[in-house]
Amino acid sequence: MVIDMPSYGRIGDIAEVLLESLRGRGAAAELADEALELAVAPTCIVVTDDTLRDEEKAASFSEYVTNGGGMVLLFGTSTRHVEQASAFLGPLGARIERVRGQSQRVRFIKHPMTEGLQSPTSAALRVNVTGDVWPLAFQGASVVSAWLQVDKGGITMVPVEMVESLSDERPGGAAITCLTRACLWGPEQMAETLTRPQPSAEATAQQAGRKQEKEPPPKVSLPEEATDFAGAVLVDSRATKDFWPKIGPHLLTELKHLGLPLKALAIGDDPAPLVRALESNPPLVVLGSWREFREAEMVALEHYLWGGGRILAAGAATRHFQIRLVYLNMFLGPLGCTITLGRPRGEVETAPELGNMAGVPPVPFGAQVRGEVTVLAEADGYIVAGALPYGRGTIVAMDISPLRQVPEYLQVVGACLRWLMEHEPVEH
Length: 428
Hints:
This protein is α/β, with parallel strands linked by helices and 428 residues long. 29% of the residues lie in helices and 27% in strands.
């Protein structure tokens, strides 16, 4: 393990004590010199955002993580530090943003890395980690510490100020224990052991009270595969063992309420099946976050939208399959919006034109829609459904993952679908 941190000041003190702690656990750990070269890849590197100002180092760290290495990134919370960290993290799928905040308790998720750590009352950290990340700690509604899976590797992001709030400088102190565990837990173990933030006791009781009232998901057969979608809804998503049993039947049932035939995109040997399929100008395209789109398909989708097409971008992901959102965002991003993990649990509120969503319980941790969108639905202030005009067409991007645990969320999905089909955008 390599600790590439300044040797002076508070950060230098943390580096020295972390080194002692790692060696006390039997880890081969060294402080890096200014000429650090990753000729033999360490199991983990610990850096600060200031370290990443060196573009050559930053490039080598990015390659190292992509190839399976582990990184612990200690970042400052001032504007300069946040921008430095985000410049490195952005191409890898995460970003740190400055937000409003106040002094309050930091809440850790349940995980071996945080087991036994006291939740401190920290100064307002005023940061929120966004993107395809897995939260490790919250302050209020903001994700202040998170883990990012990058291909075979991973990055644990921890604010320096949070470490200082936990701090005593002994090797067994909470701050150093947290960092030591972050170094020792490699990307594979993190991916295997991360669990969703635990609901409150009140939410658990409410959920238990609803169990007897809920009906099982409706049994709906898969749409037939096709290549011609004239007058039919084009469904470009596939059944998967972790999503389809709880999401698919509900979504297909709501799509059938539109009164249009449903047809699934036939993939076959065609590397870009959407190109041919969109020639039949379907009235609606449903894009799931399940496969990587070819460049020709993304161009075809843009032309379809520009000519008046309608797209429901149905984003969903789990801790093991966050790459699915990356695939969908490859199309959405250049058009002006993205769907990213990092939204906390919250009450759903919808735009007035969608009507009252009475009886929809709070939705669990999931994804949010980001960009200059018309807000159709929010959860605790985070957008879960937003509309984006493009030419004479419209995209509705939304998080459909709440359907896995909250079937009542189908009311929101249905209202967004009806709005999409009835809305006539002004050409942009």
